[in-house]
Amino acid sequence: MIRRNDDGGLLFYVAKKDMEETIASVETDTPEAWGGEVELTDGSRWYIDPISPPPEFPTTLRFKRAED
């Protein structure tokens, strides 16, 4: 699940791990597409297939750990 926090930033939540972190960067964040490699403030990296047009938040997406 990805949702906006009170400051307008994006929060990344993984229910199975009860983990919530702020998204630090997104590989593709344009008016045409959103997604790719996502880095969290804890340093972990995840991959979300780019979505076109970008999703409205909150939204639930499929993702996997990014490869090193």
Automatic annotation (TrEMBL):
| Annotated InterPro entries | NifT, NifT/FixU_barrel-like_dom_sf
Q: GO:BP terms for this protein?
A: nitrogen fixation
- Protein name, UniProt field: NifT/FixU
Origin species, per record, is Imhoffiella purpurea
